[in-house]
Specification:
With about 575 residues, this protein is an all-alpha fold. It contains 23 helices and six strands. Bound molecules: zinc ion (ZN). This is Peptidase M2.
């Protein structure tokens, strides 16, 4: 036991030291992309991976000891710290696994579709070399209404992934051996063990949540299919089948906001245009950041440190390459918090800034914990907290901060709710099925021969979405979604879509809000902020169920909040669907 305690103490010191160095390297790399910073960054992540493997292996040797709760929790966090474990002591397999994961990510990153001469309807979208990268193909999927263009863009992107399949299968074998060495049946079981409950119980829990939201999803799917049928006709969208995946405005049919105009309620123009309001009031990028900071100070959080403003990146630099994708950082795991984004003065970035600073506030809140607990208690929490804050950007909030003069009438909400549902409700079954597929792959239930059919079986079962054409025998369509070759677990996104509404409902209940949930903003409510902070500052020190209970009073994930949020929309969808045959 003393060895275990000593090991944890040293591991914590090492992790603190090394992760600060790694974070600063990654920051410099993302802010100044050059040959050398790429080199430094690769070295640094290699070092962190090696450290992670060592710590996980050593930690797993203490797993059967009867240890004090916080030591046992830290041992378990170290043991579960890897996504794809290499087998202990097998240097050859370790190197092969590292090579495969690098190759898979690189083939995704470099992936492009190069149609044969004269056999394409996408010529006008292609680059000078005649090929289309994901950027061009996503542009087609997001904006075209021509089924031939959509189908070619959809199929074209999926030509990048057959080459990944054999490597992927080999990777599954190696990582499964590694997971076994750490005491897990397979990698899927290991991933499901990260939730402070039995791995099988976790699988049961996500099924329960899905069962709760399925009626809402089914109503949305039915309405969207009917409207797409009006646009494209029976030939392309038969009313008795799942929706062909190329028509939903997104390369993976995972969020459907781009088809809003095709499915929107008639005669409900948006009540206000936040982008226009920001322009009218002459908001600068910095004004947007200060406004979001004001949201958090209004509920009682300390102002952001001076260094936040000195060290963050707000504007796209003109003289160098940076990673513009918005992100929130805490460089020393204490208070060196920053955001990095290339802000545009528009509604989307107004939301994103609130979301990112939400991450910063969370990071700073849990810095009171021991280093290994400076994290969220499960991987759905961080995103849920950022998104929950963005849910408070209501007309009422915009009016209080002087952006909006008159509150829109209740009738105007339907369009806003539908637009949100096309992103957040449509996403749910996709968020669920990606790892359902991987669980089956890692358990051996699916084999390389059945990888692709198994993928489409789940897509159809959960999403009511189908492949728009016969898939080639060598197809590996899962590989055309970044998180598969990138090996990023996905259940976190499903969970965050459930939790964000659960948090929001709890916050609004605390505030004594009695109106419709989607109109509630916690802006200015210090009592809610105080309770919220109780959950945030726990970090990963306790099971997530305890953190959830600290704020919501409930220790179970609960999907009834998302149902309450979208209740007015569900009522409208049911009216629309009254004479339709739903289901697939
Ligand atoms: Zn985020």
């Amino acid at each position: 036991m003393e060895d275990a305690i000593q090991f944890v103490k040293e591991a914590e010191a090492t992790v603190s030291r090394e992760s600060e160095a790694a974070a600063r390297t990654a920051w410099v790399n993302s802010n100044f992309i050059t040959y050398d910073t790429n080199w430094l960054s690769a070295k640094s992540s290699e070092k962190m991976t090696t450290l992670g493997v060592e710590l996980a292996q050593k930690a797993s040797t203490f797993r059967d000891l009867d240890l004090p709760a916080d030591v046992a929790r830290k041992i378990n966090l170290l043991r579960l710290g890897l996504t794809l474990p290499a087998p202990a002591g097998d240097t050859e397999a370790t190197a092969e696994l590292a090579q495969i994961t690098t190759d898979l990510e690189a083939s995704y990153g470099k992936g492009k579709y190069c149609p044969e001469d004269g056999k394409t309807v996408l010529g006008s979208y292609a680059r000078p070399d005649g090929c289309l990268s994901l950027t061009e193909l996503e542009h087609v999927i997001g904006s075209s209404s021509n089924p031939d263009e959509l189908l070619e863009a959809w199929s074209g992107w999926r030509t990048i992934s057959p080459a990944m399949k054999d490597k992927y299968a080999r990777m599954v074998d190696i990582a499964n051996a590694g997971a076994e060495g750490l005491g897990f049946k397979d990698v899927g079981t290991m991933w499901r063990s990260k939730y402070d409950m039995d791995a099988d119980a976790f699988a049961g829990d996500v099924d329960r949540l899905w069962g709760e939201v399925k009626p809402l999803y089914d109503a949305l799917q039915c309405h969207v299919r009917a409207k797409l049928n009006e646009s494209y006709g029976d030939e392309v969208v038969p009313l008795d089948q799942a929706i062909p995946a190329h028509l939903l405005g997104n390369m993976w049919a995972q969020s459907w906001g781009n088809v809003y105009d095709k499915v929107a309620p008639e005669g409900t123009a948006p009540a206000y245009d936040l982008t226009a309001l920001l322009a009218e009031k002459n908001y600068s990028e910095l004004d947007m950041v200060k406004t979001a900071e004001g949201f958090f100070t209004s509920v009682g959080f300390d102002p952001l440190p001076e260094t936040f403003y000195e060290r963050s990146l707000f504007l796209k630099p003109e003289d160098r390459d940076v990673v513009c994708h918005a992100s929130a950082w805490n460089l020393n795991d204490i208070d060196d918090i920053r955001i990095k984004m290339c802000i545009k003065v528009d509604a989307e970035d107004f939301q994103t800034i609130h979301h990112e600073i939400g991450h910063n506030i969370y990071q700073r809140a849990y810095s009171v914990q021991d280093p290994l607990f400076r994290n969220d208690p499960n991987d759905g929490f961080h995103e849920a907290i950022g998104d929950m804050i963005a849910l408070s950007i209501t007309p009422d909030y915009l009016q209080q901060i002087g952006l909006l003069e008159d509150l829109p009438p209740a009738e105007a909400d339907l369009g806003i709710l539908l637009r949100q549902a096309l992103d957040k409700v449509a996403f749910l079954p996709f968020g669920l099925m990606v790892d359902k597929w991987r669980w089956q792959v890692f358990s051996g239930e699916l084999t390389p021969d059945s990888y692709n059919d198994g993928w489409w079986k789940l897509r159809e079962q959960y999403q009511g979405v189908r492949a728009p054409n016969d898939r080639p025998a060598d197809a590996f369509d899962p590989g055309a979604k970044f998180h598969i070759p990138g090996n990023t677990p996905y259940m976190r996104y499903f969970l965050s879509h459930i939790f964000q509404f659960q948090f929001q409902k709890a916050a609004c209940d605390l505030a004594g809000w009695e109106g419709p949930l989607h109109r509630c903003s916690i802006y200015g409510n210090e009592a809610v902020g105080e309770k919220f902070n109780e959950m945030l500052e726990m970090g990963a020190s306790k099971p997530w169920q305890d953190a959830l209970a600290a704020f919501t009073g409930k220790s179970e994930a609960d999907a009834t909040a998302i149902l309450a949020y979208f209740a007015p929309l569900k009522e409208w969808l049911d009216e629309q669907n009254a004479d339709r045959e739903c289901g697939w």
